[in-house]
Every structure is written in structure tokens, then in C-alpha cells.
Specification:
Low-confidence stretches: 1-8, 15-19
Family: Belongs to the binding-protein-dependent transport system permease family.
Protein name: Sugar ABC transporter permease
Number of strands: 2
Organism: Streptomyces coeruleofuscus
Pfam families: BPD_transp_1
Radius of gyration: 31 Å
Helix content: 55-70%
Subcellular location: Cell membrane
Order of helices and strands: HEEHHHHHHHHHHH
Strand content: under 5%
Distance between the termini: 79 Å
Largest sheet: 2 strands, antiparallel
Structural class: mainly alpha
Length: 321
């Protein structure tokens, strides 16, 4: 006789595996998980934040304070209000240094941007060789001081290789770094030679984001390379080009080391750029309050130029869909 079981038959999934249900995630789990991620993020951010506070924010605030004082390292800072700024406005050397700096920036940015854009487009349209990109970047791996010294020897009026070649060709030697007319353009071109490869690679990275389909469609329509450059490349590269211009302009206004090792502000203050004048006022004449005032003025000028560039170039918007 068969005895029937009163318990209902078990329902097992195919394969005999036991069905399990995961425990639903609660709000407390989400909060604790977010706290753990936040702590981990804080650990990674802490070194950079500490460096920002110690080496950037604090010196900036300290410099702004010193710009309202008379301070020479030997005596405590004496509050003088706006005297340093009044002196700066009436200082002809300051305005001359600012003019020299603007001349340098115009030459450096103009030549560097055009040359870097041409190199980037050639790398994009003709070849994508990693070796060629490495060769283009090579001068940037050299420090400004070393680059300045090398070109100082090459362009020396009497013994430089460059002037030896010019003399061998039958032309007169050119005092590239010893003449008021040639000095600033020469320094600007030295820095163009060093930085153009890095700028070109930044623009090359921007070109990589432009879809090739647009160029192919333009070729089908019979567009030339020149027309594609102006109608496709330039509009779509604009946000990257704007950021690169902002970076290079800020860097150009802070030129110092190339001038220090080649001309030391000469001849006759022809290369006395603003950074070099600030350095001379602070560490040459120990007028740290006045030097701080000029530094604050430079900070204001760079901030205004950056904001103006950002708005005019629409750096925050792109034409890519």
C-alpha cells in the first residue's frame, strides 16, 4: 500500500540548482559605499591638494599681502597701502618691460601657432608615424636653460656656427642676441623651436577627434585639401585650439629663463621682459613689496586675457554633434 505525502511537491529550476534570492540593497548600504568611495578619493586628492595649498594658493595670498607693504627681508614688512601700485603706474621701466613682453608674446604665439598647426595637419593627413611624432617632440624634452645656452653658442656673433655659415655665404654676421632689433625676435624663435613640437602634438590629438567620414564626404563632393582645412578642420578644431592658445599665451607672458641665460635683459633693456624686471627688483634690489605689486598686476592682466580669449574663441563649445 502506497502512502501519499501530504507535503506539496518541490519546484526546482532546471538542472536541479536551488533558487536563491539576493538581499535587496538598502539606503544604508548606498550611503556607506559612497562614504568609502569619498574617503578613497580624498586619499588620492590629498597630495595634489596639499601641493596646491602650499606652493600656489599660499604664495599667491602672501604675494598679494606683500604688494601693500615695503619689505626687504632684513626688516619686518611695513604697510604702505597703494604706494607700490602708484609707483608702478609712474614707472617708465615697468611699461617698457610690459611692451617688450607683449612684443615677445605676439611673435612667439603667432609663429608657434601657425607652425604647430601646419605640423599637426601634416602628421594627420600624410603620416601617423610614432617615430616622427617622437622626433617632433624632441626639443621639448630639453629645458629652457639648455636650449638657450645651445642657441647662444650657435648664434654667437664671432664664434657661433650660425654666423660662420652666414659669413661663408658672403653675408655680414648678424648680432642676433646683441642687437636691440634682433634680440626679442631671436629669443621668441628660440622658444618657438623648443615648444612647437609639444603644441603640435596637442593639436594633433584634437585632429584625431574629427571623424574621417567628413573628409571622405568632402572629397566625394570635390572639395580640395585647402577647402577642407578651412571648412572642416578649423571649425571642429576650434575648442582644442582655443585651449592651446590660452595655455601658450599664459606661458609666454611668464618668459624668464631664456632671457636670463642669453641676454640678461640687454642690450639696453631691449629684452628686459616683465618677469625679468620683477626678478631683478626682488632679488637684485630687495624690493619685494614692489616686485609683488608688479606680480599682482601681471596676474590681473593674465586673468583678463584668459577670460577674453575663452569668450571670444567659445572654448567651452564644440561644433561636433
Amino acid at each position: 500500500m502506497t502512502i501519499a505525502s501530504s507535503s506539496p511537491p518541490s519546484r526546482l529550476p532546471a538542472g536541479g540548482a536551488t533558487e536563491t534570492r539576493s538581499k535587496p540593497r538598502t539606503r544604508r548600504d548606498d550611503v556607506s559605499g559612497n562614504r568609502g568611495d569619498g574617503r578613497l578619493a580624498a586619499v588620492f586628492i590629498a597630495p595634489a591638494l596639499l601641493g596646491f595649498l602650499v606652493f600656489l594658493l599660499w604664495p599667491t595670498l602672501r604675494g598679494i599681502y606683500l604688494s601693500f607693504t615695503r619689505f626687504n627681508l632684513l626688516t619686518p614688512a611695513e604697510w604702505v597701502g597703494l604706494d607700490n601700485y602708484v609707483r608702478m603706474v609712474n614707472d617708465p621701466i615697468f611699461w617698457d618691460s610690459l611692451t617688450v613682453t607683449v612684443e615677445y608674446v605676439v611673435i612667439n604665439i603667432g609663429v608657434q601657432t601657425v607652425a604647430a598647426l601646419a605640423i599637426a595637419v601634416l602628421l594627420q593627413r600624410l603620416t601617423r608615424s610614432a617615430m616622427l611624432r617622437g622626433i617632433v617632440l624632441t626639443p621639448y624634452l630639453m629645458s629652457n636653460v639648455v636650449a638657450g645656452l645651445v642657441w647662444l653658442w650657435i648664434l654667437d656673433t664671432q664664434l657661433g656656427v650660425g654666423n660662420e655659415i652666414i659669413s661663408a655665404l658672403g653675408a655680414d654676421r648678424i648680432p642676433f642676441l646683441a642687437d636691440e632689433t634682433w634680440a626679442i625676435p631671436t629669443i621668441a624663435l628660440i622658444n618657438v623651436w623648443r615648444h612647437v613640437g609639444y603644441t603640435a602634438l596637442l593639436l594633433f590629438a584634437g585632429l584625431q577627434a574629427i571623424p574621417n567620414d567628413m573628409y571622405e564626404a568632402a572629397r566625394v563632393d570635390g572639395a580640395s585639401e585647402w577647402r577642407m582645412f578651412w571648412r572642416i578642420t578649423m571649425p571642429l578644431l576650434r575648442p582644442v585650439l582655443a585651449v592651446v592658445l590660452i595655455m601658450t599665451v599664459i606661458g609666454s607672458f611668464q618668459v624668464f629663463d631664456t632671457v636670463a641665460v642669453t641676454t640678461a635683459g640687454g642690450p639696453a633693456n631691449a629684452t628686459n621682459v616683465l618677469q625679468y624686471y620683477i626678478y631683478g627688483s626682488a632679488f637684485g634690489r630687495f624690493q619685494f613689496g614692489y616686485a609683488s605689486a608688479m606680480s599682482v598686476a601681471l596676474l590681473v592682466v593674465l586673468s583678463a586675457i584668459t577670460i577674453l580669449q575663452y569668450r571670444l574663441t567659445r572654448a567651452g563649445r564644440t561644433d561636433l554633434g
